[in-house]
Amino acid sequence: MTTKILHGKRAIVTGSNSGIGLGIAEELAAAGAEVVLNSFTDRDEDHALAAELAQRHGVAVRYIKADMSKGDECRALIEQSGGCDILVNNAGIQHVAKLEEFPAEKWDAIIAINMSSAFHCTAAALPAMYQAGWGRVINVASAHGLTASPFKSAYVAAKHGVVGLTKVTGLEAAGSGVTCNAICPGYVLTPIVEKQIPDQMKTHNMDRETVIKEVMLSRQPSGEFATTEQVGGIAVFLCSGAADQITGTTISVDGGWTAL
To answer: Name one Pfam family in it (predicted).
Structure first.
């Protein structure tokens, strides 16, 4: 059982109504942090999700709609949250296409949501963190922030940019009590990934286990997905006192992918 080491802290997690973002929010709440969930929708189920998280962990949880493709909404999210001790820049989208065929509007959207939102949210959150003398900025990058794959030009460019932003933020904040680090997951078993498995089984005429190991995890030497709980656990660690001198760097959760 996670101890309440983050009691009294407020965490904002962008893009957190599913997948990795929700997994991180879950672990931060379990560690005692108040949590602000976020996405671009404003559905009853979004607010119900926040209520369920609050009830499960006995902490305050709110859902705030903000479109991470728009810089002013990114900054407004920080203001509307009423305080931010821990900022997790997680929002992201993907599109796969050859470079010469990559739609310009998809490029712009991926750069805005995956990279520029981290800049806007961080810029808005840092002043209060500096004033408090404590803060944590955690950027969810990717193995693709450290290496590349074909047909993912915008995603790879954005995630490399997030890693660069992490280094700059860590250097600027050094000695202030504020740290900034990037978590770089490989393939994580999220609901979106889970839904892809049956289609891959049909496409390749393979059983589930073979599809996972030979198709989906062909670049992940462990042959296993990372989990959202594991990524969330790294986020909690980065918020702990043990990580006070870890800043401006990356932590890979990729089963050995980037060791190749």
So the answer is: adh_short_C2
Which position among 63, 130, 155, 187 bears the catalytic label? Answer: 155
CATH of domain 10-188+226-259: 3.40.50.720
DSSP assignment of the chain, as one string? ----TTTT-EEEESS-SSHHHHHHHHHHHHTT-EEEEEES---HHHHHHHHHHHHHHTS-EEEEE--TTSHHHHHHHHHHTT--SEEEE---------GGG--HHHHHHHIIIIIIHHHHHHHHHHHHHHHHT-EEEEEE--GGGTS--TT-HHHHHHHHHHHHHHHHHHHHHTTTTEEEEEEEE-SB--HHHHHHHHHHHHHHT--HHHIIIIIITTT-TT-S-B-HHHHHHHHHHHTSGGGTT--S-EEEESTTGGG-
- Tell me: pLDDT of 256 over 80: yes
User: What's the rounded mean pLDDT across residues 44-65?
Assistant: 98
Query: Is 155 a catalytic site residue?
Result: yes
CATH 3.40.50.720 placement within the chain: 10-188+226-259
